[in-house]
């Protein structure tokens, strides 16, 4: 999706299969941000992009003289620079609760990503069980509002959606008492910003 205006426009370098990159793409389309999205393939990173991130991870955002890495930093930058629609609550206590849940999503679930995509079967099975059980315990929260913990689409939804989209390829099947989670996921998956955010690789995941 590159074009000749790459250097004069905001450019997101995004791994087409990475859930963290996916999170940033959802925000771009939800806020209708004018940005180039360029695929990053392992082993074939442009030299300037590889040099910009000491951790060698995606996504990476280049916006003129500003370079950002880490999905959370990037999406917060988007939300603060492009104010409409807001993707975090305005009220401080609600915003703090949302940030706490974002922290939990990353620490409890996305921290398991290397294990889930690894080769050690015993560790994979344990990681699958953790996510399955946690989502089941939290299922009632998915019934309380139109979106997760909110009546408005937020960064929480942008963070959860890539994980929920990947549950089938991760071998995670939710039990019947977690149907609220699946119903929520289907609502998010039909959202135009989510559909637009999908790479060809991600479309093939389901």
Architecture overview:
It is a single chain. The chain has 206 residues and is α+β, with helices and mostly antiparallel strands. The chain folds into 2 domains: 11-85 and 198-202, Glutaredoxin (3-Layer(aba) Sandwich), CATH 3.40.30; 92-191, Glutathione S-transferase Yfyf (Class Pi), Chain A, domain 2, CATH 1.20.1050. The protein is 53% helix and 8% strand. It has a 4-stranded mixed beta sheet with strand order 2-1-3-4, with helices on one face. Helix 1 (19-30) packs across helix 8 (155-165), helix 4 (92-109) packs parallel to helix 8 and helix 8 packs across helix 10 (179-189). The longest helix has 18 residues, at 92-109. The radius of gyration is 17 Å and the shape is globular.
Brief summary:
The protein is built from 12 helices and 4 strands, in the order βαβαββαααααααααα.
Give the SSE map.
Elements: E1 11-14, H1 19-30, E2 36-39, H2 47-52, E3 60-63, E4 66-69, H3 71-81, H4 92-109, H5 113-116, H6 121-138, H7 141-144, H8 155-165, H9 167-170, H10 179-189, H11 192-197, H12 200-203
Parallel strand pairs: 1-2
Antiparallel strand pairs: 1-3, 3-4
Helix pairs in contact: 1-3, 1-8, 4-8, 8-10
SS summary, helix count? 12
CATH architecture term of the largest domain: Up-down Bundle
Percentage of residues assigned to helices: 40-55%
Based on CA atoms alone, the radius of gyration comes out at: 17 Å
Structural class: alpha+beta
How are the strands of the largest sheet arranged?
2-1-3-4
What pattern of helices and strands is seen along the backbone?
Answer: EHEHEEHHHHHHHHHH
What is the count of distinct domains? 2
Number of strands: 4
CATH class of the largest domain: Mainly Alpha
Largest sheet: 4 strands, mixed
Distance between the termini: 23 Å
Low-confidence stretches: 1-7
Mean pLDDT: 92
- The shape, in one word, is globular
What proportion strand?
5-15%
The name CATH uses for the topology of the largest domain is: Glutathione S-transferase Yfyf (Class Pi), Chain A, domain 2
Protein name: GST N-terminal domain-containing protein
Domain GST C-terminal: 91-206
Domain GST N-terminal: 8-86
Pfam family, one: GST_C
């Amino acid at each position: 999706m590159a074009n000749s205006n790459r250097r004069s426009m905001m450019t997101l370098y995004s791994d087409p299969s990475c859930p963290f990159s996916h999170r940033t793409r959802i925000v771009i389309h939800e806020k209708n941000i004018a940005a180039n999205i360029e695929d990053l393939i392992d082993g074939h990173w442009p030299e300037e992009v590889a040099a910009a991130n000491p951790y060698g991870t995606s996504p990476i955002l280049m916006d003129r003289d500003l370079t950002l890495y880490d999905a959370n930093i990037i999406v917060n930058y988007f939300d603060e620079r492009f104010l409409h629609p807001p993707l975090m609550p305005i009220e401080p206590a609600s915003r703090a609760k949302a940030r706490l849940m974002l922290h939990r999503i990353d620490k409890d679930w996305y921290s398991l990503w290397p294990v889930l995509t690894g080769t050690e079967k015993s560790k994979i099975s344990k990681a699958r069980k953790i996510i399955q059980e946690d989502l089941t315990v939290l299922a009632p929260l998915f019934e309380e509002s139109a979106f997760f913990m909110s009546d408005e689409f937020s960064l929480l939804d942008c963070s959860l959606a890539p994980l929920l989209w990947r549950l089938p390829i991760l071998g995670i099947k939710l039990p019947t008492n977690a149907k609220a989670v699946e119903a929520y996921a289907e609502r998010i998956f039909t959202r135009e910003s989510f559909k637009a955010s999908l790479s060809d690789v991600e479309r093939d995941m389901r």
